[in-house]
Design brief:
about 300 residues; alpha/beta; 6-stranded parallel sheet; 9 strands; globular; binds 1,4-dihydronicotinamide adenine dinucleotide; binds 3-(4-hydroxy-phenyl)pyruvic acid; prephenate dehydrogenase (NADP+) activity; NAD; oxidoreductase
């Protein structure tokens, strides 16, 4: 049971955790803080939080669990702002989409309390953001990755794991670097590709005409280009190396496809497309490999 849960960043990710834990009766009081006063008020109105704090210090005072769910570029300033006000026993965790940068920020700012920081990442979300996008079942049957480091207190990791399990999530542990490489491939690169494609089409004078004839495939591929620009800027800058390395591989692949089309090399295209189809068909049929549930 959590007595006082502090949510820093009461948007989709923070708000959904608060709603899930409240729904399970697992928390006595939820205090929320977001930089935007509008978000704080909305979170109160929607029953996501019981109390809106006016500052980071007020939000974390007396909290036994602190969940930081702000864009990655704001993590450092949040850790700086809470460090001196945390209760001695407080456990701190986060939902940032890439872990190395967040872990470095927490290490730099939290001092002694760094051992009570459990880095985490819910592999669950949508293209929507803000408190109004939050919903209590977001994490059900979804994966949560915790990336504790050598300094992390194992009892703190166990508590954070238990908290996520209450939301209906499956919790896994990974090391930080592996997490950032894997997520760059399955989440960060696809978002960059979708933003680029939709951005490119939006530049065309005949964009509306072109989109009028878009089929379901375009809708599927482009949904994530509706995601928040600040959040994705921060993820790209925060997981720079892994994303750049994948982009380089991706460029190679696209160049080879370009060459094959130019040379009317249908065999090459059949080879690439059929290997991709086989890989996707087999893995999507296996729920242990790819999460088939709706986002
Ligand atoms: N959106 C998604 O599908 C997923 C997002 N994440 C990660 O979760 C974190 C939060 O994302 P969302 O909930 O989607 O964002 P959001 O935009 O819905 O909510 C973020 C909240 O943080 C507040 N905020 C921004 N800067 C702040 C600051 N300096 N101090 C205090 N509050 C501040 C905003 O006012 C907003 O209320 C990000 O780090 C993101 O990478 C992780 C998994 C999925
Ligand atoms: O909307 C989608 O399909 C997503 O991929 C959501 C998402 C965004 C960022 C994450 O770190 C994890 C999940």
């Amino acid at each position: 049971m959590i007595n006082r849960l502090a949510i820093i960043g009461v948007g989709l990710i923070g708000g959904s955790l608060a709603l899930a834990l409240k729904g399970k009766g697992a928390v006595n009081e939820v205090v929320g803080y977001s930089r935007s006063e509008d978000a704080r008020q909305q979170a109160l109105d929607l029953g996501i939080i019981d109390k809106a704090a006016d500052s980071l210090a007020e939000a974390v005072s007396g909290a036994d669990l602190v969940f930081v769910a702000v864009p990655m570029g704001a993590m450092n300033s949040v850790f700086e702002g809470i460090a001196d006000y945390l209760s001695p026993e407080a456990i701190i965790t986060d939902g940032g989409s890439a872990k190395a940068q967040v872990v470095a920020a927490a290490k730099q700012c939290l001092g002694e309390k760094f051992k009570q920081f459990v880095p985490g990442h819910p592999i669950a979300g949508t293209e929507k953001s803000g408190p109004s996008a939050a919903f209590p079942t977001l994490y059900e049957k979804h994966r949560i990755v915790l990336t504790p480091v050598s300094e992390t207190d194992s009892a703190a990791t166990a508590k954070v794991k238990a908290m996520w399990q209450l939301t209906g999530a499956d919790v896994f542990e990974m090391n930080v670097e592996h997490h950032d490489t894997v997520l760059a491939a399955t989440s960060h690169l696809p978002h960059v590709l979708a933003f680029n494609l939709v951005g490119m089409l939006a530049e065309r004078n005949d964009c509306d005409e072109v989109l009028r004839y878009a089929a379901g495939g375009f809708r599927d591929f482009s949904r994530i280009a509706s995601s928040d620009a600040v959040m994705w800027r921060d993820i790209c800058l925060g997981n720079q190396d892994a994303i750049l390395s994948l982009l380089e591989q991706y460029h190679q692949g696209i160049k080879q496809i370009e060459e094959a089309i130019r040379n009317q090399d249908g065999d090459y295209l059949i080879d690439v497309f059929s290997r991709a189809k086989k890989a996707r068909d087999s893995r999507f049929a296996d729920p242990n490999l790819i999460d088939n549930s709706e986002v």
